[in-house]
């Protein structure tokens, strides 16, 4: 059974940095796009960043220049480096992995709190 597990969330002060990781298990093949989404309390889940199999990246306007997504194809892992965090970045962050047949897998999320 495929599982995605996020880690690296926590409490950080405004202006601080965090690095999120998403590890997979259970055997996941033919990965195409890997991405990160987030959901703040009372809000809908929103797109944060994605990276395709060729390494091309896309970011939400709100995180451009502050967040960097990367992937390790050998490990089927995806990462999100976040700097200059703002209170509005606080949310549960989810990783998402899409495979060639169109199926998308989601992790359970990791909580990021930005507060002084």
Quick one: how many beta strands?
Answer: 11
Tell me the structural class. mainly beta
Low-confidence stretches: none
Give Rg in angstroms: 13 Å
Please give the share of residues in helix. under 10%
What is the terminal-to-terminal distance? 40 Å
* Alpha plus pi helix count: 0
The residue-averaged pLDDT reads: 96
What is the H/E order? EEEEEEEEEEE
Could you describe the largest sheet, including whether it forms a barrel? 7 strands, mixed
Given the C-alpha coordinates, what overall shape results?
globular
* Residue fraction in strands: over 45%
Summarize the SSE layout with pairings:
Blueprint: E1 3-7, E2 10-12, E3 18-25, E4 31-39, E5 46-51, E6 57-59, E7 67-72, E8 77-82, E9 91-99, E10 104-106, E11 110-114
Parallel strand pairs: 2-11
Antiparallel strand pairs: 1-3, 3-8, 4-5, 4-9, 5-6, 7-8, 9-10, 9-11
Tell me what you see in this structure.
The protein has about 120 residues and is mainly beta. Strands 2, 4, 5, 6, 9, 10 and 11 form a seven-stranded mixed beta sheet that branches. A four-stranded antiparallel beta sheet has the order 1-3-8-7, with no helix packed on it. The radius of gyration is 13 Å and the shape is globular. The termini are far apart. The model has no long low-confidence stretch (mean pLDDT about 95).
